[in-house]
Amino acid sequence: FHDRNVRSKASYKLPPGPSPLPIIGNLHQLGKNPHHFSAILAKIHGPIMTLKLGQLTTIVISSAEMAKIVLQNYDQFLSNRTVPEAVRVHNHHVHSIAFMPITPLWRFLRKICNNQLFANKTIGATQDLRRKKVQELLGKIHQSSQIGEATLFVAGTDTITSTLEWAMTELLSNPNTMKRAKRELEETIGKGNQVEESDIARLPYLEAILKETFRLPPSVPFLIPRKADTDVEINGYTIPKGSQLLINVYAIGRDSNVWKNDTNLFSPERFLGLETHVKGRHFELIPFGAGRRICPALSYAMKILFLMLGSLLNCFDWKLENDSKAEDIDKKQEFGISLRKAKPLRAIPIKVNN
Ligand code: HEM
After folding, report:
1. Nearest atom in ligand 1 to 226's CA
2. How remote is the CA of residue 117 from the centroid of ligand 1, in Å?
């Protein structure tokens, strides 16, 4: 199987793509939101596409089907990282799990993540700490609510806060979805109560909201770049050794072959009754990546998101500042390590009484 598909000879055909200019390649075409523009380019050139980012040959994957082939069948040949200069100058490729190559040290650190840091037992043992932190957050928002001050959702490069900001943005833009989420919380855990970890399994609509937030404005739009260790042949095209591999989950979330109904509409209902989860097996929804490099903090991050979003919704009503209307919300994105809102969301909390 592998002998037929993995070649080391240089007689290969690159996946199609736009013509590059000398030196800069296609960099000039990508602009400030490369995930967005490369999704448009993929509509022309296909779900496996070549871009030249400067001198770096980059293969961009833009469909769930192709992501499955790459991250499931060929993961072992595509698990190293290309290292951006900004990361290299800080030596992160030597010390940080996310950028170091696959080495015994990486395996050792991943083992510590799985068996210690993010093991169920450890996460379970720190439940009180998270409860206290969410309580502190609710206390601060309560203070704002007493003086009618807006809560500013500022997400830096942090994936959890940017996901939270996008979820609140979508809920404030979709009042019926907000209402349904609040109703589920009220009926399940009682109005005004903080969400407990034991409540999570009983909140399927809140879970659907998180999934829909990962689908439409994913917090890590290209995952973390990977590098081909060897030539890998897929559907008659070659991902050449040394090239960079980007998985455009932003494009995958908008793939109309998979997301058939109102692809661009924020509609958590689409997930109700579906098995689709975010653990790297359903390639139409891989906000945490998949394969060997999948985010080791996945379950922990999901827990925190449930606790924070659920508690914010169940303890407060929310309205936009200056009586702005839902349709006025500016949803422009700003590309970075995580995808954040170009203009931070400002919303006014109103404490609900339980
Ligand atoms: C909503 C929250 C989060 C999202 C969406 C997210 C997403 C991701 C993605 C897409 C990757 C790359 C996967 C791949 O290459 O296939 C990744 C890797 C990683 N994430 Fe997360 N992440 C989140 C939260 C966290 C948190 C809270 C931590 C740590 C406390 C964390 C630690 C890591 C590490 C260490 C890696 C590198 C793994 C490796 O390269 O072997 N993540 N994450």
Report:
1. 15
2. 14
Q: Is residue 283 part of a domain?
A: no
What is the atom index within ligand 1 of the atom nearest the CA of 117? 30
Whether 291 is covered by a domain: the verdict is no
Complex ipTM:
0.99
CA of 328 to the centre of ligand 1 (A): 32
Same domain membership, residue 318 and residue 190:
yes
For 190, counting Cβ atoms within 10 Å of its Cβ (0-12 exposed, 13-18 middle, 19+ buried), the class is exposed
Distance 267 CA to ligand 1 centre (A): 25
The best mutation among 80, 112, 288, 299 to test binding of ligand 1, ranked by most ligand atoms within 8 Å of the C-beta, falls on 288
Tell me how far the alpha carbon of residue 138 lies from the centroid of ligand 1, in angstroms.
26
State whether the beta carbon of 287 lies less than 6 angstroms from ligand 1: yes
**CA 327 – ligand 1 centroid, Å:** 32
Is residue 11 domain-shared with residue 102, that is, in the same domain? yes
In this structure, the answer to whether residues 33 and 134 fall within a common structural domain is no
CATH number assigned to the domain comprising residue 102: 3.30.43.20
Measured in Å, how far apart are the chain's first and last C-alpha atoms?
61
Whether residue 35 is found in the same domain as residue 104:
yes
Domain count across the chain: 2
Atom of ligand 1 nearest to the CA of 289: 16
Q: What is the pLDDT along the chain (354 residues), one digit of tens a residue?
A: 344 455 545 578 999 999 989 888 888 888 888 999 999 999 999 999 999 999 899 999 999 999 999 999 999 999 999 888 877 888 878 888 999 999 999 999 999 999 999 999 999 999 999 999 999 999 999 998 888 888 777 655 589 999 999 999 999 999 999 999 999 999 999 999 999 999 999 999 999 999 999 999 888 889 999 999 999 999 999 999 999 999 999 999 999 889 988 999 999 999 999 999 999 999 999 999 999 999 999 999 999 999 999 999 999 999 998 888 888 888 888 877 677 788 888 899 999 877
Any domain includes 286: no
Dist. CA 281–CA 36, nearest whole Å: 24
Q: Does 14 lie in the same domain as 86? A: yes
Distances from the Cα of 295 to the Cα of 158, 165, 180, 287, angstroms: 14, 20, 30, 9
User: 1 CB contacts (<8 Å, ≥6 apart)?
Assistant: none
Range(s) of the domain holding residue 57: 1-117+219-252
- Among 74, 72, 52, 70, smallest CA distance to 61 is for 70
Annotated binding-site residue? 295 = yes
Give the number of the atom of ligand 1 that is nearest the alpha carbon of residue 220: 10
